[in-house]
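**Protein of interest**
===
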Amino acid sequence: MRSARVADASTPSKAAPATSRAKLEPMRLEQSPRPGLAEQARARLEEMIVSLELAPGSIWSEAQLSASLGIGRTPVREALQRLEADHLVRILPRHGAQITEINVVEQLLLLELRRELDRIIARQAARRSTAQERTRLLEMGKRLASRTADDADILPYLRDHYELKNVLAECARNPFLARAVMPCYAMSRRFYYLHHRQARDLAVATRHHIDVIRAVANGDEARAAAASDKLMDYVEDFTRATVTNRF
């Protein structure tokens, strides 16, 4: 067996000069590993909250949620802590977790933040996304549009919407931005789920999303930002219409 060669400390370093070192490569998305139990619990609980299966104001113990999900209490506890940070639950010591109420005023305040974050995401995604990612976004837009034929079962649409928003945020190449905006999306999906049957405008909402996708796919930063603002104009009008009932 050959012995490993040890460099002589007195030998001058042969490191390449700075000008010849490899340049930093842009970040690239890689296939995510299978999520851990806490993330699985968080994702499933979020969907149950968004779809109102866990009704606003209701209180659930860790044991109840653990039994419902078939996941241990420790991952469920961690998932609830993350959902509390996302303003979807409120931890009640010794009682469990209470699902937060849906409040129109709070929703409008949330949209003020989402508007700014969405605009940055759209602009940066148009600048930083790869050709492969742009192709994927266009395909996701087509799939989203195909869901508008049946708005009786909106959950498949919201699952595709969830994936689309995650991919757009990843294309912006800013994990801090992505982390800040995800709670906004979760609360917006829940609000839309509650009121979409009154509006019956799934096709209109989808056209706004597709306008953003196309601008990003074309690498047009200004158009992407403008399309994002028009989408948020629609979302705000939708939210206010739930109060005035002017759909």
Summary: The chain has nine helices and three strands. Residues 44 and 96 are 17 Å apart (CA to CA). Residues 104-128 form the longest helix (25 residues).
